[in-house]
Amino acid sequence: MKIGIFDSGLGGLVIAKAIHKMLPAYDYVYLGDTKRMPYGNRSEEAVLEFTKEGVDYLFRKENCAIVVIACNTASAKALRKLQREYLLKNFPDRKVLGVLIPAAEECVKFKNVGILATRGTVSSNTFPKEIKKLNKEIKVFQNSAPMLASLAEEGRNNLAVPFIEKYLKPLLNKKLDALVLGCTHYVIFKKEIRKIVGKKIKIVSQDEIIPRKLKKYLERHREVTRKISCTRDVKILVTDKTDMVKKLTEEWFGKTKPKLVTI
Ligand code: DGL
Predict the structure, then answer these.
(1) Pocket of ligand 1 (CB under 6 A)
(2) pLDDT tens across 139-174, in order?
């Protein structure tokens, strides 16, 4: 069986790359719903429906033992329902993990935290709720960046900088000590964001958190880990094979030469 990683598009691929780097022995299959991204501006019903379809494909067709939803929007809007309803009914012995709570857990070290995320993640209020569950004294400020995930799908690109500046402006007035990149696509702009926020603000970025959390999870849950095959196979599935998918796949997984397949 494999480890599945799911996102609306290429943001999750940055997380997949980081997971693969830390845990290269396992077999992976990535699914990016590139045809229907962005998820961030969609209704809760649509995000749940699309995420369920993606996860279901990874379980049924790809025989995944565990799926990481490397998408904050889906982690905020669909993960709980999938775990409580879909998974229990269909695959009670498999696991679905999200990326939002691990990032919220990193925020306990800070006092004033900014969250930059999609409109859907911001309106769900999941980041503030999860952070305040851990420490209600932490001040949490959010802003949505509706265009940023789509710009990220175009690769790192100076065109995005004025948008990033505009989206960060209201947060930077708040004396932040940490900024959460609350959408996996924004990791692609980490360097640009660092330039704007300066050195003093800690950037909480899921490519630096999720591999370590997954490693610990797999160490704790041997019943899952022993089902995962270790032939170092990497496969990337997309619902629409764009030029950027081809380019980034080659750039990031060059040596492993993953199969890139449209489903
Ligand atoms: N990468 C996703 C997230 O972390 C979703 C971006 C989108 O499709 O809008 O929220």
Answers:
(1) 7-9, 11, 37-40, 71-73, 118, 121, 149, 183-185
(2) 999 999 999 999 998 876 788 999 999 999 999 999
Task: Supply the CATH classification number for the domain 2-98+208-262.
Answer: 3.40.50.1860
Domain 101-205 falls under CATH 3.40.50.1860: yes
Whole-number Cα distances in Å, 137 to 32, 102, 134? 37, 19, 9
CATH 3.40.50.1860 range(s) for the chain read: 2-98+208-262, 101-205
Q: Is residue 71 annotated as part of the catalytic site, yes or no?
A: yes
pLDDT tens per residue, range 81-134: 999 999 999 999 999 999 999 999 999 999 999 999 999 999 999 999 999 999
Q: Separation of 44 CA from ligand 1 center, angstroms?
A: 13
Residue from 48, 73, 116, 163 to probe ligand 1 pocket by mutation (most atoms less than 8 Å from CB):
73
Query: Could you tell me the distance, in angstroms and rounded to a whole number, from the CA of residue 122 to the centre of ligand 1?
Result: 12
Measured in Å, residue 38 CA sits from the centre of ligand 1 at 6
pTM score of the predicted model = 0.96
